[in-house]
Amino acid sequence: MMLYPDILYSGEHIRLTAGLFSAARPAAPPLHCIAAAAAPVPPPPNCSASAGGVAAAARPTDTDQIEFNEFCLFIIFKFLDAAKDGFLDRLDLEASVSTLNVEGVTQRDVEHMIDYCLQYRKNLQNIAFSFSATHSAASPIMGISRDSLHKRRATGGRKKHWRKKKKYELGRVPANTKLSANVAVRKVRCRGGNSKFRALRLDSGNFSWGSEAVTRKTRLLDVSYNASNNELVRTQTLVKNAIIQIDATPFKQWYQTHYGLELGSKNKGADKEEAVKVDDKKASNHIQRKLKERLQKRKLDPNVAEQFTTGRLYACISSRPGQCGRCDGYILEGKELEFYVKKMQKKKSKAA
User: Fold this and answer.
1) Does pLDDT of 116 surpass 80?
2) H or E stretch at 343
3) Helices (H) and strands (E) in the chain, counts
4) Which residue from 224, 254, 250 is spatially nearest to 236, judged by alpha carbons?
5) What are the structural domain ranges in the chain?
6) Apex CA 178: angle with CA 346 and CA 218, to 5°?
7) pLDDT by residue (tens digit) across 210-254?
8) Which one, of 169, 171, 205, lies nearest residue 324 by Cα?
9) What is the bridge-based pairing of β-strands 312-317 and 184-189?
10) Domain 178-267+274-351 sits in CATH 3.10.290.70
11) DSSP 8-state secondary structure symbol assigned to residue 219
12) Cross-strand partners of 223
């Protein structure tokens, strides 16, 4: 049984014993090397220290001794985890290691190790702090950075890295907001304590009907076209300037209230592009006069009126769902609608 802690260590703090583990396995420091990190901490039981305070171990030939060293190291790291969480109970430390069965390790050995940890808790906590500090400064894992320090000057010369990387310069993964009924929006802290809202899944948004100067909240039904990448259409990804289909019901209800006309009626006698007049005998004279005035100024794009028969309207997303957490946009009309309809028809003909 080999135990490896989930922490990376720097050579400045731990001097690994040569040959303790094979080269194929990840190097884990043996127990007696923990004492080398801080002079006030004596080596734990069953470990021999050199005169200089740094343990020097020969290549062990006994497998039990290797497992015992690793077992002791495991107990120390259990202690450090408990100290980090503000949790230093002897009984809980014993319970956490009692489930392990290591040959040659008795209950007395476990008690000695826990006594050692509790006696030198401050030094061990300082070691843990120095481990984490060294790891964060010298970690080989690099994140994506959007700063300009790593770029060359306009003259071609290299810039001096005069400061460390900053959190506000990091590059985060794309939101890839999906069209889904399981809505999920996450709050992201930004520079200066400001906030962004990362929409992961959305199913509704506010859409504006420009020619009528009205906005309604409506459901998102489908992603129909994206000029940048067809893959975003296949995966139903909501991004800015994507062409989608929305539910026409809220706008149909508003139109009926505002003009007294029902759009998209499926009556046989009515033309597809024309609205059907609703019986307004129950309305007051004042309302009837108001509707009559509105009808005189009414203008409706035939292509938009035709869409009301299907119950779906083409719209364009104008917000950035991955930045503001909302999917807002406007209904396509006029030349823009004609342009995108042609594009979608061309794409369908190619697919066929």
Assistant:
1) no
2) helix 334-351
3) 10, 10
4) 224
5) 85-126, 178-267+274-351
6) 80
7) 999 999 999 999 999 999 999 999 999 999 999 999 999 999 999
8) 205
9) unpaired
10) yes
11) E
12) 244
